[in-house]
Design brief:
seven-stranded mixed beta sheet; single chain
């Protein structure tokens, strides 16, 4: 929790309370469903929550911004971002029902009112959003192909609408077809922990 306050000192007491509840909730769920590797649960705040919040260093979403978290799993990056941006609306989408059940329960337990969780394939989702966010391992080209239709054409933020994806490692092959459009934000510019040395936010405007 101290990591969150270190990099986001502006959070309110309510937000702090919501963030602080996440560890016990995810640890409990992780004992039932393998969301996070067993040894990694101790690093929840650094490797999962703070990592998700890297998007919040790249852009401050305005009130009324709508976002879809594609392949949310147990709620990353959607739940941490929804806590950080209570004025934005989030749809957490995953095709695996038990993962959506986790995300639903956690949003309920921390009284997160700006989140809707659904089990669905993105191919079947017709609604429009300002941004699609994701921490899923799906290749960017595939994600754009199936979710480009969900990006609204009416921008309201400092960055034009598009995709904001958390990625790591060597991305040259994955992003080469978008090379002239993509902006890469190095998370090591915002967070000093070693984990973030190879982590990036990939922004692709649509």
């Amino acid at each position: 929790m101290e990591l969150i306050k270190k990099y986001f000192p502006e959070i309110t007491q309510e937000q702090e309370n919501q963030f602080s509840k996440l560890y016990d909730l995810y640890k409990d769920w992780n004992s039932k469903i393998n969301l996070i590797s067993r040894k990694d649960i101790e690093n929840l705040y650094e490797k999962h929550i703070l990592h998700s919040l890297g998007i919040g260093k790249v852009i401050k979403f305005k009130e009324g911004t709508t976002l879809m978290d594609l392949g949310t799993g147990g709620g990353f990056p959607g739940i941490p971002l929804a806590i950080l941006f209570p004025g934005s609306q989030f749809l957490l989408l995953d095709s695996i029902g038990k993962k959506i059940k986790v995300a639903e329960d956690i949003t309920h337990q921390i009284d997160l009112k700006n989140v809707n969780c659904i089990q669905s394939r993105v191919e079947d989702e017709k609604r429009k959003f300002d941004f699609v966010v994701s921490r899923a391992v799906m290749p960017l080209s595939e994600m754009v192909q199936i979710a480009k239709k969900n990006i609204s054409t009416k921008p309201q933020n400092a960055l034009p609408n598009g995709f904001l994806c958390l990625k790591g490692g060597d991305l040259q092959d994955e992003i080469k077809s978008f090379r002239n459009k993509i902006i890469q934000y190095e998370l090591s510019d915002y967070f000093e922990e070693d984990f973030f040395k190879t982590k990036k936010v990939i922004y692709l405007p649509i």
